[in-house]
Amino acid sequence: MITAGIDGGARAIKVLILRDGKQLARSSALTGFDQQATVTQALESALQQAGVAREELQHITATGIGRKAISFADSEVTEMSADAKATVSLFPQARTVIDVGAEEGRAIRCEPDGRVKDFAVNEKCAAGAGTFVETMARTLEIKLEEAGALSLKAEKVIPMNAQCAVFAESEVVSLIHSGTAKEEIIRAVHEAMADRISAMARRVGIEREVALVGGVGRDAGFIKALAGKLGMELFVPMEPEFAGALGAALIAAERARAS
Amino acid sequence: MLANYGYKDGSGEYFIAIDTDKCNGCGACVKACPADVFEITADPFDPLAEKQVAVIKEDHRKKIKYSCALCKPTGERPPLPCTAACEPQAIAHSW
Amino acid sequence: MTEAVATAQKREYWRWREYDWRDESLDWKRAGGISVGIDVGSVSSQAVVMCDGKLFAYSSLRTGSNSKTSAQRALEVALQETGMPREKVNYLVATGYGRVNIPFAQKAITEIACHARGANFIYGPTVKTVLDMGGQDCKAIRCDGRGKVTNFLMNDKCAAGTGRGMEVMAELLQIPIEDVGPASLSLPEEPPPVSSTCVVFAKSEALGLLRQNWSKEKVLGSFCLAMAHRTVELLSRVGVEKDFAITGGISKNIGIVKRIETKLGVEALKPSIDPQIAGALGAALFAKALYEKELSGNAKTGS
């Protein structure tokens, strides 16, 4: 059986195709202003990689903030359910999932079978999501991909007072002017984010093991900071941004079987 | 006076209101709070008053949602230690 | 000092003008007590000098990188041409963001307390609600007829609803900050408000709207409306009782003021003195009260 999961995120659209639970292909595209066109394009590219025709897809499930706009999907699922399903399939021992995307942060506690037990969301404020790190990286004139490695080189942790991305930008500028090393500034950014995300995760109750998914899961500096705050190692998939799409594709397969 | 400490951002409104007319400065909230957000000082908003009252510490005011996270689990919520400890009922949370 | 003033004047292309004022009809030499309030804000600093509770002189300047020098300069500019030496000041209270870094102040008082007291002086005892929209924060204050705070909140965590948020939007649309208000009102009808509160997200939303061929004015109108909504929501936490006044830099933005007034159904009082000095004025009034308290304390102990 072949199914697809589409995650319409705030920043990127991710598509993942599964055959009998195994990943055939995945692709992503930046969410443009014409979301429908971007989704179609990403799906076509994934189908091509997989060598599968569109008609062969038995079920398409959409998730993510833009899921309502994916008109051709057969069904939809919340980001929480998709994250939980994907995480348990990747790490069967995981019971807590932390998902930090571009515009939202989420913490989900799940059952061994990947059903959602409880969750907390931080939305509509850039301070609690990937946009925060991205904005600070831009102010520091470093590439987002470099932020992690740079942060790991920091020799000490300096405090960051601003709790708003706009105010934090000015704080970063004055830190640069006062001669603080970029390594230390980006580390402070990661620590501040990790403070907020770990507090949110504690609201749902942290049950071992804990996995980190979402695009920010690519950032080694954030992973280290969050692991430090939680006092435990984190499970992070190779391609953490595809967790939502994977979960949606797994749920699509369940739904196809059921119908 | 109703002193509202906290903030409103895109994600919601998070304020702890302390009624300084009711607060007797006993400090029970300071002992009860696991996040150490309270302190007893001269009222910073009424400089001519002689009374000591409970205030939210400066460094918690901009992140109170996170400071209070431990006492506000997503599931069943037990009574908040600060409001439970406050005999004159001077403390109220907005969320 | 003259050097500092000269450099500041060279930078006069900035957003607003520095100014100072004094009452030449008042003879400070005959005053029993001279009290001073200095408000060192994130953007501007004001110094107010009072003789026996009467407004004598004030200045409003840009804050430099150092709170202490900014406060010193504000006081020097307020006192220039008055012939009053600084040593004549009986009591000095500092307020604002930089208040704790002013060693020559006898006391530091929160801006909330000072604003309420200053607004009471500027608008008279009927003022019960003061909304202060500054560069980096927004304060909603309820006070009694004597200018004592009865209920307040301060939002300095989030840039939405502050001058800073407005600057970000003005910069994105490349519209000078002082034109924002009139431009936002130049539309035949009110656009729907932007849906994002967060300034960072509102910025991406605004870019999207521009791509949909919205005019800059329409985007601004949409942003100002959202900002007004948010401010009114914040105000509702303390409640609005007439008379109502708006102070701070954003009180000069008609696009925000008009929309807040419409939403509340209440008109804001028009000030007789620049409300930007409200904080420093309140601090000077507290300085007077504290000086009198000190005198009576000394009289009792006989020293």
UniProtKB/TrEMBL annotation, chain A:
<keyword id="KW-0411">Iron-sulfur</keyword>
<dbReference type="GO" id="GO:0046872">
    <property type="term" value="F:metal ion binding"/>
</dbReference>
<dbReference type="GO" id="GO:0051536">
    <property type="term" value="F:iron-sulfur cluster binding"/>
</dbReference>
<dbReference type="InterPro" id="IPR008275">
    <property type="entry name" value="CoA_E_activase_dom"/>
</dbReference>
<keyword id="KW-0479">Metal-binding</keyword>
<dbReference type="InterPro" id="IPR002731">
    <property type="entry name" value="ATPase_BadF"/>
</dbReference>
<keyword id="KW-0408">Iron</keyword>
<dbReference type="Pfam" id="PF01869">
    <property type="entry name" value="BcrAD_BadFG"/>
</dbReference>
<feature type="domain" description="ATPase BadF/BadG/BcrA/BcrD type">
    <location>
        <begin position="5"/>
        <end position="252"/>
    </location>
</feature>
<dbReference type="InterPro" id="IPR043129">
    <property type="entry name" value="ATPase_NBD"/>
</dbReference>
<protein>
    <submittedName>
        <fullName>CoA activase</fullName>
    </submittedName>
</protein>
<dbReference type="InterPro" id="IPR051805">
    <property type="entry name" value="Dehydratase_Activator_Redct"/>
</dbReference>
From TrEMBL, chain B:
<dbReference type="GO" id="GO:0046872">
    <property type="term" value="F:metal ion binding"/>
</dbReference>
<dbReference type="GO" id="GO:0051536">
    <property type="term" value="F:iron-sulfur cluster binding"/>
</dbReference>
<dbReference type="Pfam" id="PF12837">
    <property type="entry name" value="Fer4_6"/>
</dbReference>
<feature type="domain" description="4Fe-4S ferredoxin-type">
    <location>
        <begin position="14"/>
        <end position="43"/>
    </location>
</feature>
<keyword id="KW-0411">Iron-sulfur</keyword>
<dbReference type="InterPro" id="IPR017900">
    <property type="entry name" value="4Fe4S_Fe_S_CS"/>
</dbReference>
<keyword id="KW-0408">Iron</keyword>
<dbReference type="InterPro" id="IPR017896">
    <property type="entry name" value="4Fe4S_Fe-S-bd"/>
</dbReference>
<protein>
    <submittedName>
        <fullName>Ferredoxin</fullName>
    </submittedName>
</protein>
<keyword id="KW-0479">Metal-binding</keyword>
TrEMBL record, chain C:
<dbReference type="InterPro" id="IPR008275">
    <property type="entry name" value="CoA_E_activase_dom"/>
</dbReference>
<dbReference type="Pfam" id="PF01869">
    <property type="entry name" value="BcrAD_BadFG"/>
</dbReference>
<protein>
    <submittedName>
        <fullName>Benzoyl-CoA reductase, bzd-type, subunit Q</fullName>
    </submittedName>
</protein>
<feature type="domain" description="ATPase BadF/BadG/BcrA/BcrD type">
    <location>
        <begin position="36"/>
        <end position="287"/>
    </location>
</feature>
<dbReference type="InterPro" id="IPR017605">
    <property type="entry name" value="Benzoyl-CoA_Rdtase_bzd_qsu"/>
</dbReference>
<dbReference type="InterPro" id="IPR051805">
    <property type="entry name" value="Dehydratase_Activator_Redct"/>
</dbReference>
<dbReference type="GO" id="GO:0046872">
    <property type="term" value="F:metal ion binding"/>
</dbReference>
<keyword id="KW-0411">Iron-sulfur</keyword>
<keyword id="KW-0479">Metal-binding</keyword>
<dbReference type="InterPro" id="IPR002731">
    <property type="entry name" value="ATPase_BadF"/>
</dbReference>
<dbReference type="GO" id="GO:0051536">
    <property type="term" value="F:iron-sulfur cluster binding"/>
</dbReference>
<keyword id="KW-0408">Iron</keyword>
<dbReference type="InterPro" id="IPR043129">
    <property type="entry name" value="ATPase_NBD"/>
</dbReference>
